[in-house]
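User: Hey, my collaborator sent me this sequence without any context and asked if I could get a structure. I don't really work with proteins. Can you help?
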Amino acid sequence: MSDDAPESLIPYDEIVQEALRDVVGRVLGEVERTGALPGGHHFYITFKTRLPGVAIPKHLVERFPDEMTIVIQHRFWDLKVEQDMFSVGLSFGGVPSTLRVPFAAVTQFHDPAVEFSLTFHANAAPELQQEHEPAENDMPQIEAGDADQSGEPSDAADDGSNVVSVDFTRKK
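Assistant: No problem. I've predicted the 3D structure and written it out in structure-token form, which is a compact way to encode the shape of the chain:
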């Protein structure tokens, strides 16, 4: 008998990650509605800087090419919370900046006033697509004359790819 749990057909991990990110949105939304942080609360929010939807000044991306942590405490302004992202004004080295961060890019949320912390799986956020060379297995489509007697493509085009071409207009 194996100790391994069976593979679930329900994406529980993704559902939980999404729900926990909603906690961050609700907390920030409450701060937006009241216009202030309650009591001694303040937040450290860590996010991936290069994920789609993240909009931060270029000098910050250069300084933090992978991840960045911001503090929402004393000096912030224009906090706006939407269903899937937030934006906030912060100052970096005396230079005011506005940051737009999708909740999918957030990897950590920490409120040290009450020792509340959430950590999100890195794979829960969409990965940045990097530029790459064209795939070497992109071959031209096989023409009708390139099929063998059975109607199947000849082995001459067998390049190891798993792309299948189906012609639904062919009559038997």
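In plain terms: The CA atoms of residues 148 and 172 lie 16 Å apart. You can pass these tokens on to your collaborator as they are.
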